[in-house]
Prior knowledge:
By secondary structure, the protein is of the alpha/beta class. It has one domain (4-119): 2,3-Dihydroxybiphenyl 1,2-Dioxygenase, domain 1 (Roll). It is 21% helix and 32% strand. The protein has helices at 14-23, 72-81, 115-119; strands at 4-9, 27-29, 39-44, 47-53, 65-68, 87-89, 97-101, 107-111. The strands form 2 sheets. A 4-stranded mixed beta sheet has the order 1-4-3-2, with helices on one face. Strands 5-8-7-6 form a 4-stranded mixed beta sheet, with no helix packed on it. The longest helix has 10 residues, at 14-23. The chain is globular.
Amino acid sequence: MIHHAALEVREDDADADVAFWGLLGFAEVGPSPALARRARWLERGGTQIHLLFTEEPLSAAEGHVAVIAPAFEETLAALRGAGHAPEPRTEHWGAPRAFVRTPSGHRVELMAFPPDSALE
């Protein structure tokens, strides 16, 4: 199991990114006290997203974080309602999929279910 993914954001943009991840079911949790002034952490089901503050954030053009969205259509509707633009993708293993960008520009893949669920 992967514990967390760390994404760089400007501190001034962190509120928008926290709200974005909230639409995907992630709740904010307190970071380690030593990191409280340098990051914000979010968690869902034991997996965390760490938003690391930096003046010049990097976001990969094609790299991405993939998130399972069991309420897939509802999640897409919530994202659209909040001003995000999910883009549907090919259902390689029969799962609805889409890509969307966080307010800080990170690419996120949304999947109704992971590949291993379809292959069992």
